[in-house]
Design brief:
The protein is mostly beta strands. It has no helices and 15 strands. The strands form 4 sheets. A 4-stranded antiparallel beta sheet has the order 1-2-3-4, with no helix packed on it. A hairpin with a 3-residue loop joins strand 13 and strand 14. The model has no long low-confidence stretch (mean pLDDT about 95).
Length: about 190
């Protein structure tokens, strides 16, 4: 039984009710998590990996959240979107160190967002348009906490923007806004 699906630019990940991940599509950057780069035309299970509770695909990277609250990432690591402190791509899932008790993840085109058990939001990767919410446009190689934000309960990332919901049901958005995708009544960039 499939319980979740996530699509990147040209790859797909699905999660079954036993906490196993199946991926297929483009694998040119290792975003399918098999340790190689041949494409897969049918869903193929990432072996020896269980206990997954959430998946998210970016443009050419994938993030998974396990039942211990740990985040694993793989694929192309341009701009540090995998969160490991470097720009080295990973072809197999690798845990982001020093992160536990995570409750939700979301991948944008080239950035990754993490919500921890305290409702704090952490972001890494490409930030040209302020999609990391850190009031600047500098990329981050490791997850960096957005200051003065708490009680975040949900996140969803677009290509170069991020939208979050807090515990009071308030919606916050930041990043590129050229088509009004932040829902703020204008087309101004928000850092």
């Amino acid at each position: 039984n499939i319980i979740q699906v996530s699509c990147g630019r040209t790859h797909t990940a699905i999660l079954d009710n036993l906490g196993r991940i199946w991926t297929f599509g483009n694998n040119s950057a290792g975003q399918l998590g098999y340790g190689d780069v041949p494409h897969r035309h049918i869903p193929t299970r990432i072996s020896n990996f269980k206990g997954v509770i959430q998946i998210s695909c970016g443009r050419d990277h994938t993030a998974i959240l396990d039942n211990r609250g740990q985040v694993w990432t793989f694929g192309l690591n341009s701009n540090g979107k995998l969160g490991h402190g470097d720009l080295q791509s990973r072809w197999i899932p690798e845990m982001i160190p020093n992160f536990e008790n995570v409750t939700q993840i979301s991948c944008g085109g080239d950035h990754t967002v993490i919500i921890d058990e305290y409702g704090r939001i952490w972001t890494c990767g490409y930030n040209r348009f302020g999609q990391l919410g850190l009031n600047d446009n500098q990329d981050r190689l490791t997850p960096t906490m957005i200051p003065n934000f708490g009680g975040i309960v949900q996140v969803s990332c677009g290509l170069n923007f991020t939208v979050i919901i807090d515990h009071q049901s308030k919606v916050w958005s930041f990043g590129v806004n050229n088509l009004g995708q932040l829902g703020l009544g204008d087309v101004d960039l928000r850092l």
